[in-house]
Amino acid sequence: MRERLADDDIVKLINKNSSTKDSPLVTWDKIFIASHKALKAEADRVTAEMRKEKKSNTVGRDKVNYMSLISAIASKANAGSIPLLSCNNLLSCSLEILERSIYRRIFGEGYIRLLLQYVLPIPLYWKDISLQHWIDLFDLAVGFYKDPPEDCSKDSIVELLDLIVNHGCGQSHLALKVKRLLSNATSYH
Predict the structure, then answer these.
(1) Residues whose CB falls within 8 Å of the CB of residue 29, separated by 6 or more in sequence, listed in order
(2) Domain boundaries, the chain
(3) Disulfide engineering: 87 pairs with which of 27, 101, 128, 175, CB 3.0-4.6 Å?
């Protein structure tokens, strides 16, 4: 797949297909979702193997391969001035990984990076994110600040919180949730 993404003609064709609403052809969304499903299947397979053999091994090289493929897809799809990946698909897939501890343990850091690079900094996406998704993202980020996913730095979590608060409060009523959290935090002193 990575070889195909390196071919400019193929990327141009996928860009063209993705520009057409409800295209029956290969689009960035279809490639992203298929890769995301493969990533989850691999995580499920490795986890089942680990349970069966009672090993505490991680996915290792496969983790890097899957996450670099997911990142490459997002990078190619959103390289132009108009992102060609659906915000809903990016967000739903990211939340699916980050909300389940088994997936988060293996791929959490990669999907946080995906949110930081390809979702939250893109103004065209902000209006497409529902209040509930902003709240879910905020709640996850606050939880990650307290207990970060494996291999994820506090700096990434703080950057995630910053983007969520800065962009989410301007697009929704997330500010009320942030205010409640901060007023509760001051009562702990």
Answers:
(1) 18, 85, 86, 89
(2) 2-186
(3) 128
